[in-house]
Amino acid sequence: MDPEQVVLAELKAWERRDVDEIVGYFSADATWSDPNGTFRGSDEIRKAVEGYVARMEHAEMEVVNIAAAGNVVLTERVDRFVYDGRNIAQPLMGAFEVADGKITAWRDYYNMPR
């Protein structure tokens, strides 16, 4: 898969809330950052994903725009969740770095919902 396909597959895995699949798209030494913190390596990323997924009843990642240049993929998205019983629609931007078919870095930028 090319970098754009890897990112789209990762986002679809979130919609299925499949922890093993979600974590499987990351390299062993990846970093994943959002306004809640930065998670480094497979163990930290798995623990964070498990925590998020356990609190979700539904997930939908709408890709509004996507751009790829080399190993970098940028996404403008609206992530929709039922999270802790609340409906959330979060507009955001994501930056992904991909090498050898794995996400090595993922950074999401957004304002926290109120």
Task: Name its key features.
114 residues, alpha+beta, Nuclear Transport Factor 2, Chain: A, six-stranded mixed beta sheet, 3 helices, SnoaL-like, SnoaL-like domain-containing protein, NTF2-like_dom_sf
Can I get a quick summary?
It comes from Mycobacterium bourgelatii. The chain has 3 helices and 6 strands; from the N terminus they run ααββαββββ.
Structure in words:
The structure is a single chain. The chain is of the alpha+beta class. Helix content is 30%, strand content 54%. The protein has helices at 3-16, 19-24, 41-54, and strands at 26-34, 37-40, 56-69, 72-83, 86-99, 102-109. Strands 2-1-6-5-4-3 form a 6-stranded mixed β-sheet. The radius of gyration is 13 Å and the shape is globular. The termini are far apart. The model has no long low-confidence stretch (mean pLDDT 95).
Topology of this protein?
Layout: H1 3-16, H2 19-24, E1 26-34, E2 37-40, H3 41-54, E3 56-69, E4 72-83, E5 86-99, E6 102-109
Gap from first CA to last CA: 37 Å
Shape verdict = globular
Q: Tell me the number of structural domains.
A: 1
CATH topology: Nuclear Transport Factor 2, Chain: A
The largest sheet is: 6 strands, mixed
As a percent range, the share of strand residues is over 45%
Widest sheet, order of strands = 2-1-6-5-4-3
Strand element count: 6
Tell me the quaternary state. Answer: single chain
**CATH class group:** Alpha Beta
Number of H/I helices: 3
